[in-house]
Amino acid sequence: MAKKTFSKILKDFWYGKPHTAEEGGRRLGELHEDKTHLYKHREWRGVPDTMYYFYNIWLYNYIFMVKDIMVMYGPITFAKGLWRYRWVGQTYLPVLHWFDRGLEGMRGEAMKASAWHYRAMVATTIRQFQRMFAADTRLHGGRQNDLYRHTIAHNETVWGGVFYPWDGEITNVPLEMIPYFVTCHVNSHTVLNYIDAVQSIGLPGDPCPMCQAEAGIFVLDDVPDYAPAVITCNEACDASVSTSTLQDWFFDKPLFSLPMPMLFDDPLVRKYVMREIEELWKFVEQQYGIPFSWEKLTKKLELQNELQRFEWEKWEVDAKTPYYPINGVAQALYRIYQSQYGDWEMWHVTDRKVPPDPPPRDRLVLRPAVLLQLVHLGLQLLGPERRHQHGLAHVRHGDPHGFLRAYARGHGPVPHVGPDAPHGRRRHAPHVRALGLHEALQLRHGCHV
Amino acid sequence: MKDLKHLIYFENLLQEANNELVQKAKKDGLRAIGYTCYFMPEVLLDLPGCFSVRLRAPRCTSPDIATYYMSARVCHYARSLMERALEGGFNFLDAQMATETCTATCRFQEHLQQKHLDSVDDMRIIDNDDFFCEFTDVPFKNNEIAYEHYATQLRAHVLKPLQEHFGIDISDEAIRKAVEQHNEVSRLINEIGDYRKLENPTITGYEFHVIQLCSLVCPKHLILPYLRETAEEMKKREPDMKKEFRCKVLLAGSENDDPGFTKLIESCGARVVCDRYCYGAVESRQIIELPDGVDPVYAIAKHYLHSSNCPRFMPQDEMRARKKRIAELAGEYHADGVIIASNKFCEYWSYERVIDTVILKRDFGLPVCSIEKEYINTASGQLRTRFQAFVESVEIKKIQEGK
Question: Minimal Cα–Cα distance from B359 to chain A, Å?
Answer without folding.
Answer: 10
